Protein: Docosahexaenoic acid omega-hydroxylase CYP4F3-like isoform X1
Amino acid sequence: MSQLSYLSGSQSACESAAWSLEEANGGDGLLGMLPAPKWLSHLLGLAVLEPGVSSILLLALLALGTWILVKGLAWVQRYYVNCQRLRCFPQPPLKNWFFGHLGLAPDTEEGICYLQELSRLFSDVHIWWMGPFTPTIRLNHPQVISPLLKASAIIAPKDKLFYGFLKPWLGDGLLLSKGDKWSRHRRMLTPAFHFDVLKPHVKIFNQSADIMHSAISLGLWGRDHDHHHPGASSRILQAKWRRLCAEGSNYLDMFEHISLMTLDSLQKCIFSHNSNCQEKPSAYISAIMELSSLVVKRYNQPLLYWDALYYLTSQGRHFSRACRLVHDFSNAVIQDQRCILAQQGSEAFLRDKAKSKTIDFIDVLLLAKDEDGKALSDKDIQAEADTFMFGGHDTTASGISWVLYNLAQHQEHQDHCRQEIQELLRGRQPEEIEWDDLSQMPFLTMCIKGSLRLHPPVAMISRCCTKDIQLPDGRIIPKGNICLVSIFGTHYNPAVWPNPEVFDPYRFDISKSQKISPLAFIPFSAGPRNCIGQNFAMSEMKVVLALTLLRFRVLPDKDPVRRKPEIILRAESGLCLKVEPLLGPSSPEAHLSEAPQE
Ligand code: HEM
Structure:
């Protein structure tokens, strides 16, 4: 009785007694069949409703409550079992119980140093808590990453947490798709990266590098990191590197110029479109740059992880606008090419392309057929083209910029590379890198690999385990967990690479490379979902680096460079290097002496 009074709050003792009596008499209908129904319906404010309605509502509420309780208990049990199963893995000290390890490795130089330290202390695998309920498993050693990277795309798909923000931009392209769609597309797209298709692109790489060396535009893209050039963004400056040097402003942000150059060549290789983006602004190229930087911004604002909120903000609206612009561009090119293909038929279309000696990626995708003779839809082609633009520009630009940085720090290796290229091109006019030259630059290749190890453009990739995955030592990664394959951690693991922080191209000397595990060096990832564009990227890097070293000496900036891991590895306030033109037939000076001075 006292319990009833307490529960009914302001109800009088008489009323409570009446309920008890009524209940004792069997209650009224359905409501009466429930335990203590009256006080509960009063408590929930259902007593004012018709008895039948309130009974149904009460039943629904009870069912909902039971469902939540069962789900909650099941979740607690799963969480408990998962924690127990994860106890075989060590974990670094937590920041606190709520945040876990969040915030311990910020996107700064200090954060990177902390990760380096973790790789030293926990040499293969450790737990990393992202808040109180989300454990992730970070893997730093070839032996433990092997089962994960070799697992099929169904067992270890990409996880939504890390890749979800790219979806509205890249759709179901190779990077984000999964299951059967991914395997079908991967098979259909592999020929697009065959050597025969890549060969003619070498000419495009040469041209794009020539444009960068001879005419560069400063600050056109609103990403003015050129701290030696305050105000550069306010003017459009058609400047040659040599002229910049003569003006005493030969400190250039490599990232800024090289990403523009990689975007230029990708646009030509994918769409056969020349936007002259290195010389004048291009709305399409600006949109791609904006999308990349908006995705990074969103990662750093957990409140905006929620789509409904994000698209209400000005950032979200800019993101939608830039996506529309990028999609419209790809679509227009696809429609144009589809029309030509329909008019000419595939044989004449191919003959035409063979005459012009280049077949772009859109052509390959339009002609691609699966085992059943089915072609890709326009939407699929658009997603794949957008994915190539995203996957290929910043990564390659980061790769090239860090090689130049490492060679600026090590003049002896820079001289060695330059000598190799000069010998290769001796007596050749014009000095252009050709396809066959790419295999004749062993030392430059070693330097590129040395730099990709020390400064991997993609520092980490993540996977979600849909099944238990057993590690070679018998420990098991329980299904349902997110795994972070740390490319950076593996490359800095002293158990794998002695003195990991030293730039030493001789580690990649072919005569020694048998000793390196194939999974110790994974800038392009490994296994079935490795980078489909790695040969394209390596070719472009070699061409651009060879021409740059032939024409310029690069020297370190006065200020130390601070690394910044975003989607790709950048430098905090741009990667500034001092650039000095060299005399020689292909140097900009030679061209300038022929050209009338402005
Ligand atoms: C130095 C340059 C590059 C680096 C370091 C790099 C690195 C990577 C890495 C680590 C992955 C695996 C991502 C993951 O599993 O989540 C990947 C995948 C991919 N990359 Fe690259 N990449 C480079 C250049 C390129 C280029 C030039 C293209 C295209 C033109 C490209 C297209 C792709 C695509 C489509 C995928 C997804 C493959 C799949 O899941 O089947 N990448 N890349």
